[in-house]
Write a structure and sequence with these properties.
- The structure is a homodimer.
- Chain A is an alpha+beta fold.
- Chain A has a single domain, classed as Arc Repressor Mutant, subunit A (Orthogonal Bundle), CATH 1.10.10.10.
- Chain A has a 3-stranded antiparallel sheet.
- In chain A, a hairpin with a 2-residue loop joins strand 2 and strand 3.
- In chain A, helix 1 runs antiparallel to helix 4.
- At the A-B interface, helix 1, helix 2, helix 5 and helix 6 of A face helix 1, helix 2, helix 5 and helix 6 of B.
- Chain A binds a DNA duplex through helix 3 and helix 4.
- Chains A, B: It holds the Pfam family HTH_5.
- Chains A, B: Keywords: DNA-binding, Transcription, Transcription regulation.
- Chains A, B: This is Winged helix-turn-helix transcriptional regulator.
Chain lengths: 106, 106
DNA sequence: TAGATAATTAACTAATACTTTAATTGCTTA
DNA sequence: TAAGCAATTAAAGTATTAGTTAATTATCTA
């Protein structure tokens, strides 16, 4: 099950920070590495893990490898799990109401 | 930040299964242990970790210690993170629509 | 083609996490 | 108070993870 890999991938602050960086824009492996106090190989491993979990995708363009976030994968897994554990409770419902409202306004 | 502990806690299949069991009803440590092929001390450690992360609460009643799920804590953290990474995207929005619809019907 | 840059893989070390058995604590009841 | 069950804590071993440096692969450019 991919859920295992996703939660494993998320159990690391630097990996979650990488996802946050990628939420704004796609970045090269080097771009990402430069944002951390860690060597490039270490970042490369984190990226492999995130990709294996299906949370990011990579594409080589010339010398560079660009990484981008797979939003759906992340959101599907997290909300899927949240709904499994507590079907329709609390803050998520509130969030949804907010979203629904915004949609109504748009 | 509690987020670290929550994601750490979720990075374990048995711990996620414990949460799933607790989503239906509160259970004693022994009840939970009996559902796994693992010794009681091992389960006890998993429970401690879940409690430290704020995902469950425990209460001793006589000989027994009852555990229950802290739904809000789980949902808050997961949706908080999901929204941080992708503000209003995809399946969560769909989920919310579904919820909003159900609410309309109720 | 040779040299330089980007990125990954390999090999190794250090730190963490998981599980087990054994010992301990808390509560109940005969 | 002693015996017994529930649960946790302690101690110890094993395995996994995260990080480093060194070597390798891929691409670009002079």
């Amino acid at each position: 099950m991919a859920v295992d890999q996703v939660f494993e991938a998320l159990a690391s602050r630097p990996r979650r920070e990488i996802l946050a960086y990628l939420s704004a824009q796609e970045l090269t492996a080097g771009d990402i590495a430069s944002r951390f106090e860690m060597t490039a190989p270490a970042i490369s491993r984190h990226l492999s893990l995130l990709e294996a979990a299906g949370l990011v995708s990579s594409e080589r363009r010339g010398q560079y490898v660009f990484y981008r976030l797979n939003q759906d994968s992340l959101v599907n897994t997290l909300t899927g799990f949240a709904f499994e554990i507590c079907p329709a409770a609390g803050p998520l419902k509130r969030e949804s109401r907010k979203l629904a409202t915004r949609k109504g306004k748009a």
